[in-house]
Fold this protein.
Amino acid sequence: MYYVVATVLLVLCLLGIPYLMRRKVWKNLNLEIMNNDFDTYYFTIDSLKAQLSMSAFERENMRLSGYIAQDRKDDVEQQLSMMMNMRIKKNQKLAVYERAFYYYLQLGRAKKTKDMMELVRSIDAERAKDLDIQYSILIKKESKYIPEVAAKIDHLWDGKSEMEPQKELAVGTLEYLLGLQYSYKNDTENMKKVFTSALKHCAGTPYEDSIKQIMEQKA
């Protein structure tokens, strides 16, 4: 009986060690990247503790985060290429393609953004629909998705009641996309209405400066 109990306790202990180690590594990585301590950040990624508690994909994804944070464009390109060629699960490939999509979208690189969108579509056509909308609005500067974006906002918020804090950025981002479309159509009345609401939900984000700039231009 004592042997069985001891064995169970030993198994539980062995299972718990990687979990606790993983929590510690993730905590350290988050603190290091927040403090821009990149030398320590990359050292942690390559440490034995990280190798024992994190998958290769997770470590390389964190390395990618560091390169993006440092704006090391050549390294980002090489890292994305390497990760796309890793032997990883389909959902992990999808995560890489989506991350690359948003990276190139932010840089305004139309062809690369579209290429990543098509790679997402090859795995999950439904997931690609949202990327289609963003590509259309932010890269092609089209205004053909006004009803769809408005419906997404209505699904998250009725426009009257107090919004749950965790929904604010999502709603603000959608309002930004909706307001952009009105600006392309020179519909300043609806643009100002939507952007005024978006400013409340996007405070402190890059969207805030963009909205203010567009409103000044359209004034």
